[in-house]
């Protein structure tokens, strides 16, 4: 099983300098943020929005802080199962793991929107540009989950099964890589292809497509992914990941319909700074 051989050769620690240990998971977050920022910058230039580099960097900083705070809070609230009530200081121990994509998404919208509001930049347009680059971060993040040997799938006898160190000595679906391909490569390819048209598609188109596609892919992969041990299955075969993903599909479809009906053009600065 070729993927198993690859996994066994991987080390979660990328490198260490004295007491400082740098893990692939941290580098995945860094690479995701940098690539998403580059995509946002290049997209606004292709769309002719006229945003300054300083303002784009400011927006990205707001998004980064929003993702980290939101992802952690959602994990504590929805996946903690009471653990953090008994160990409140663990909430701040990000190096111990525990981040939620759904919380990161909410945090990114809130953090980015606050900066956009302060700078007079169109919030719907930045959301549209942001979700074009977001799948790159998802790709790196899921690959890091694979390297860490976490969030693995159910038992399988397929030739690409992997025997994870904490997986009970059986071959399992590499569900992290399924998500890396679907949530990362496929969604990015679709949104990037759509973004190539100038003038760009109406506000809300890209955000709606991202929400719908992510929700569908995550919902499907959850059927072969083992749920978090502290939660298990909630309703029959339904997991917390599916419970949080279904509303994204609905919101995405509704947003696509509203975007098509309103047909508002993408914009850079708004108000007095409008170009």
Structural description of this entry:
The chain has 275 residues and is mainly α. Helices cover 61% and strands 3% of the residues. It is built from 9 helices and 2 strands; from the N terminus they run H-E-E-H-H-H-H-H-H-H-H. A two-stranded antiparallel ribbon has the order 1-2. The longest helix is centred in the first third of the chain and has 27 residues. The model has no long low-confidence stretch (mean pLDDT 92).
SSE-based structural type: mainly alpha
Note the gap between the termini: 56 Å
**How would you state the average pLDDT, rounded?**
92
Order of helices and strands: HEEHHHHHHHH
Name the helicity range. Answer: 55-70%
Q: Order the strands across the largest sheet as they lie in space.
A: 1-2
Work out the number of β strands: 2
How many helices? The count is 9
Biggest pleated-sheet summary: 2 strands, antiparallel
Poorly predicted ranges (pLDDT <50, ≥5 residues)?
Answer: none
- Morphology call: globular
Radius of gyration: 19 Å
Beta-strand content bin: under 5%
Summarize the structure.
The protein is mainly α and 275 residues long. The chain has 9 helices and 2 strands.
Task: Reconstruct the topology from this structure.
Blueprint: H1 2-8, E1 13-17, E2 20-23, H2 24-46, H3 53-79, H4 83-86, H5 101-119, H6 123-148, H7 175-195, H8 205-221, H9 240-262
Antiparallel strand pairs: 1-2
């Amino acid at each position: 099983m070729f993927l198993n051989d690859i996994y066994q050769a991987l080390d979660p620690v990328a490198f260490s300098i004295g007491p400082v240990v740098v893990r692939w998971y941290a580098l995945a977050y860094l690479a995701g943020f940098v690539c998403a920022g580059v995509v946002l910058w290049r997209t606004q230039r292709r769309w002719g929005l006229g945003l300054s580099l300083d303002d784009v960097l400011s927006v990205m900083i707001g998004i980064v802080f929003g993702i980290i705070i939101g992802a952690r809070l959602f994990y504590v609230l929805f996946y903690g199962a009471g653990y953090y009530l008994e160990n409140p200081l663990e909430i701040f121990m990000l190096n111990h793991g525990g981040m939620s994509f759904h919380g990161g998404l909410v945090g990114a919208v809130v953090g980015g929107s606050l900066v956009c509001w302060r700078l007079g930049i169109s919030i719907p347009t930045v959301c549209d540009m942001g979700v074009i680059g977001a799948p790159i971060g998802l790709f790196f993040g899921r690959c890091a989950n694979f390297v860490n040997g976490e969030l693995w799938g159910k038992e399988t006898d397929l030739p690409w099964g992997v025997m994870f160190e904490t997986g009970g000595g059986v071959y399992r679906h590499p569900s992290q890589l399924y998500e890396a391909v679907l949530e990362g490569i496929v969604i990015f390819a679709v949104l990037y292809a759509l973004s190539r048209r100038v003038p760009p598609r109406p506000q809300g188109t890209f955000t709606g497509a991202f929400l719908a596609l992510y929700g569908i892919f995550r919902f499907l992969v959850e059927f072969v992914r083992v749920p978090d041990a502290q939660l298990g299955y909630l309703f029959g075969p339904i997991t917390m990941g599916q419970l949080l993903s279904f509303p994204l599909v609905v919101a995405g479809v509704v947003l696509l319909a509203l975007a098509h009906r309103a047909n508002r053009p993408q914009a850079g600065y708004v108000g007095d700074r409008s170009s």
